[in-house]
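Design job #97: recover the sequence.
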């Protein structure tokens, strides 16, 4: 990753999850700034998250922003802040205690493979540069 890319947020997601891949597609369409993506299965994610003392949990969404890692509902809300339209208003959910937000997050995460079966992210040529763990 180049120096100029180091301040761009990175979303770490389960690359084998259809719901997660659909969410990445949604973020790509609605983003108002560049956001990088890496699957949790990648060595890039493993190495970077390990540097932050994070043990990867496949049912967890992680966001690296300004050298800080956010997970679960905190990551989701911070991602909403980076989207166009009314999505930044979702930050209002911060008033809900984290254990409740994460409880809802965990219910969705537990069922994520049933919510949306296999769905592969096929980025455009411009979007490909945002994926940090591509094998091509």
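Job complete. Output follows.
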């Amino acid at each position: 990753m180049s120096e100029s890319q180091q301040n761009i947020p990175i979303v770490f997601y389960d690359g084998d999850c259809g719901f997660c891949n659909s969410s990445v597609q949604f973020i790509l369409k609605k983003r108002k700034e560049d956001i990088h993506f890496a699957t949790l299965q990648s060595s890039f994610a493993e190495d970077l998250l390990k540097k932050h003392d994070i043990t990867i949990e496949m049912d967890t969404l992680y966001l690296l922003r300004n050298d800080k890692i956010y997970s679960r509902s905190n990551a989701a809300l911070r991602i909403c802040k980076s989207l166009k339209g009314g999505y930044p208003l979702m930050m209002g959910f911060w008033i809900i205690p984290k254990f409740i937000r994460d409880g809802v997050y965990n219910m969705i995460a537990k069922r994520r493979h049933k919510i949306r079966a296999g769905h592969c992210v096929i980025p455009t040529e411009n979007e490909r540069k945002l994926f940090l763990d591509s094998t091509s």
